[in-house]
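Data card: per-record layout.
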Amino acid sequence: MTGTLLNVEDVWFITTPDLAFVPFGLLLDAPMCGEAKDFTLRVCPYFGVRNYDRLSDTQAKAMAPKLSDASSGKRYETPAEFVAVKVTGFQGEPTAEGMRYIPSRHYASIEFWEERNCLRVIDGKGVRAEIAQGLEKALTTCPPAQWPNWATMSLDGSLNGRWPWAQPEMKELLLQEARKFA
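The structure for this 182-residue chain is written out next.
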């Protein structure tokens, strides 16, 4: 959004609480810098307008013809609350449904947003407590034996300091994935 390279000290994902704190929560939206995160959460109708459904078919087709699929009949309800997480590393992985991002869940900071307002910010030791609560919840909904193979690495610290653009040949892979949306 800002047209600059992501600084490893300022990489954020926006998601929902149910996905941010469980090891098997998938992140499908691309990473962004803190400035873009703030702008998006304050301006984008999806993140800020209660019960926002989607762009009109005409708007969607004009913006991203390949992503517009009004024929599917799917309707998405906007979540009431969003979470922005500042990550310490992540991995990108192309799938049939699009790019999947696996963050290190050793977050540096967590922000809770609702209707264009940041309600609370958690830093320091509070981050670990929030992650521990999410892990507890995850264990009650899905035992570790049923987690996908990548879920453990989101928790064990192996993704700390790992950035896709620093991996061999990943830049070209990310560009190929981006071209699919053009």
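Known properties of this structure: The longest strand covers residues 117-123. Helices lie at 17-20, 34-43, 45-48, 57-63, 125-141, 151-155, 170-179.

See the next section for split statistics.
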